[in-house]
Amino acid sequence: MPGTTIVVTNFYICPTNKKKIILVSSSINERDQMLFISTDEGASFQRQPLSFTVETLLFHPKEEDKVLAYSKEKKLYVSTDLGRKWTLLQERVTKDRFFWSVAGVDTDPDLVHMEMQDTSGGFLYVTCLIQNCSDKMVTAQFLGKIDENSLTVQDDYIFVKVTTGNRTKHYVSYRRNEFVQMRFPKYALPKDVQIISTDENQVFLALQEWYQTDTYNLYQSDPQGVYYSIVLENVRSTKQPEENVLIDILEVRGIKGVFLANRKVDGKVTTVITYNKGRDWDYLIPPAVDMNSKPVNCKPPDCHLHLHLRWADNPYVSGTVHTKDSAPGLIMGAGNLGSQLVGYKEEMYITSDCGKSWRQVFEEEHHILYLDHGGVIIAIRDSSIPLKILRFSIDEGRTWTTHNFTSTSVFVDGLLSEPGDETLVMTVFGHMSYRSDWELVKVDFRQSFPRQCTEADYDPWKLTNLQGEMCIMGQERSYRKRKDSSYCIKGKSFTSVLTSKPCQCTEKDFNCDYGFERAASLKSEGDRCFADFWHDPSSPPYDCVLGQSFFSSTGYRKVVSNVCEGGVNKQQSSKQHTCPLLPPRGLQLGIKGESLAVGPGDDITFVVRQEQGDTTNTKYQVDLGDGVRAIYRNLTVTDEPIQHRYEKPGIYRVTVKAENPAGHDEAVVYIQVNYEAPLQEVHLEVVPIAGRNKEVNLTASVLPATANLTVFYWWIGDNLQPILTLENSLITMFSETGNVSVTVQASNGRSMVQDTKTVCVFDQFEVIPLKFSKTLDTINPNIPEWRDDIGQVVTKILATVTDIPQESLVTMVKPGLPTAADLYVLPPENKSDKRNAPVDKRIATIKQTFNENNVSFIVRGGLIVLVNLADPDPGSGRGTAGPGVWALAVIFVISLVAVGAFILYKFKRKLPGRNVYAQMHNEKEQEMTSPVNHSEDTQNIIQGEEFIDDDLDSQTLGNHSGVVLSINSRELHSYLTS
How large is the average pLDDT for residues 482-506? Predict the structure, then answer.
């Protein structure tokens, strides 16, 4: 329309042909949007109206005329003629979660990966071809739903994540093979994962663990991206306004294996560098003089150089650190000298030997552009005011020349070089005012160089780390650079790498394997990798198949892409083993859609999963509870669904038994035909050992904590008739010895979840209270799995030291802090039925072992944890299976609490949500089901605040009314409906 002012909102440049540019523009009222398309680097534009509002464009990585466009209506469009004509590809696509095919990995260049929302509101990972991408033609590539905004396609890898309840699992597909769960250290418990790098057949990622708020830990993987080991802790992170997270780590381009990172420890941010992909890290050495050749007062170890590692919002303006593949060793960045990084100082520093020595070049931050393989460095001051001068250097920043690139000052929006690393022509993008037309200013430096360079114009230089070592990543590398006195063009034929020669392998060429880490605090052990307490190096991997073989790890693995030869081999002592027939473990039975409450006649799909053990040689017996039974083979491998329909209302006990010659496992789920939609999760807390005819407290913690009326169904053993309560705890007794299964279901009338535990019942046993070194509290995530693993470690060590059979000992770590435990000493098999057994000599042996400090283990960071008796003379006698006299006091307290809770309910009309866990010897401690939560309230959950009603005093013990209902399902239904 004549006279209409056009506002350019964004611009995109084809990565394979930078002459092709697309400007996204709109009118002042932002109602009409159009594209301006150029094929001659902005010299002329063709106007193309749009029928949708563009949020982002994505060029094809190989075919320059193919473009994807994402609209504000969550629709994805495709163009095969550089944006002149558009076709709707798919609807309900997640923003920034669509990817073109990857050359060399995907078979079809027209394939598109995307995350889309299905009709039920869940999110799926699907692919399709741009020629036909209707709902019927998309192909689901991941079985089941994924988390929103979790799909990432990068090089050989595809990543997704799945959250169930409050626990998230991350999955990876390597070179488009089946998805496999990513294996982090067992108690990393990730709150968030950010992919840093995926080149050279290895994944670098930043993982925020359960205890971190503004830092992440850096991990590296094996070539398949499955097993991860930590390489650097406490890397700083910042959260952007649109919930984007930026991690302060930068891969230095041009020389593989070099990374810069900013660590935040005790509030101080410092910059470190690695030359061997995270195996070793060092501080940056400060320059001796400033830009005016005056000495600086900055000496290690109290003072170093620190750099800001930020990315620019505009992809055509460099961030605070600039590197380039065609200019190896050349790094230019903004930062400061001192004991830590500060935000108010952004001086510019440069290195031409990959970080070994630095020089100051400016006192203010500048945007940087490299031309002619780094032979010319362009610098434009980062300023909010219009500019008309730039600076350039042809001697790696030692001297700078000022150049007026325009006669009228412009606001600089971006810098762009012509295609090819050898170019000496650049373009400045800018505008005269915020409402003016686009200004393109071309600057040509070719006239500054009279000739092409020859071999005599170059000097060699060898890459070394900060210690001067030349063997880096297993090889000595020699490069060449132009002499400062040579004014010539490097040109298209220039190559920077001169020679490379492999070195003999040393200890520094090996990193810690999965399940191992270095303990810097144990200096006497040298640079040794220790197995984490939860990891057994000799056990077969979870996916070990009968007949195949595996190697038991020595604790070390060669750094990926390291090319050293001969010398030290830290992996040579690994032994090859044949995979045994593994018994099924971690059998899980659920319903697709997660609901345990359904309506009569609803189609139900049962899903069986198995975390560990052999599946190909395992038989699965399924009983659906209404007379229908079936036997399956390879059930968890083929993901064959079990579909069923219940016609009559009621409660159905569905069981799956997995069995092979090595062992068996069983999963049970109770289906209630009547209700809808589940709660998130319920966690059952119960002591693992109980005495026959002794009172035991069962406690259920529900997520999310809710003030609504919740009914708890308790199944003891195989009894189909549950006990119903309106409180989340139940005191019960077991009349027979042996293993008893306890299941709890929580329902609020609209939803239902369940958990199951097994209790071993004996006539006699001993309980010995234990305590741990305080260092263990700092790494205690307060979740059941961690407590189980610590208990197993203590049991195993104690059995080894005392020669008492491990089957006779059970260590149960209690919830909460300080970390404490109870050691259960079970009766010998030949005495299990004797009521009046003689004094157990094992007790004296156990106490002496603890008193002599013979039970200890190593946890993360090399911390040594000592286990002692909680009391030098605990006085725990035989048969301490029940609370005894203390039960009366507890019942009295519970009664008082019940009266208080009833009064509060009458006046506040709201039940408090704190859950109380009662041990067998009547210690009540608050339980947290998991610190992992992907919301802003993660830390509150860790501290237990999620379970406290804000309306109640913090001393109130919670929602125990003391009422136990023993009514059948029909009576409950009448109660709920009334």
Answer: 89
Which tens digits make up the pLDDT trace of 167-197?
889 999 999 998 889 999 999 989 999 999 9
Assigned domain for 405 exists: no
Label the pairing between strands 663-673 and 597-598: parallel
**864 shares a domain with 773:** yes
| Residue owning tokens 């067992």 | 186
CA-to-CA distance for 477 and 473, rounded, in angstroms? Answer: 10
Q: Are 465 and 472 in contact (CB under 8 A)?
A: yes
Sort strands 964-965 and 597-598 into parallel, antiparallel or unpaired.
Answer: unpaired
Look-up of token digits 């209902």: 965
Q: Which amino acid, 923?
A: E
Highest mean pLDDT among 247-251, 612-616, 934-938: 247-251
Structure tokens at 323: 């590197």
Q: How far apart are the first and last CA of the chain?
A: 68
Rounded Cα distance, 653 and 690, in Å: 25
Given a contact cutoff of 8 angstroms between Cβ atoms, the answer to whether 61 and 49 are in contact is no
Per-residue confidence (pLDDT) for residue 976, from 0 to 100: 32
User: What is the arithmetic mean of pLDDT over 527-541?
Assistant: 86
Rounded to the nearest integer, the mean pLDDT of the chain is: 81
> Under 8 Å CB-to-CB from 935, ≥6 apart: which residues?
none
Range of the domain at 477: 458-502
Residue 493 confidence (pLDDT): 83
Beta carbons within 8 Å of 692's beta carbon, 6+ residues apart: 734, 735, 736, 737, 761, 762, 763, 881
Q: Is the dihedral of CA 363, 369, 370, 371 positive or negative?
A: negative
**Of the candidates 887, 890, 897, which has an alpha carbon nearest to the alpha carbon of residue 962?**
897
- The domain tally of the chain equals 5
Residue 591 lies in a domain: yes
Half-sphere exposure of 733 (CA within 13 A, CB side): 11
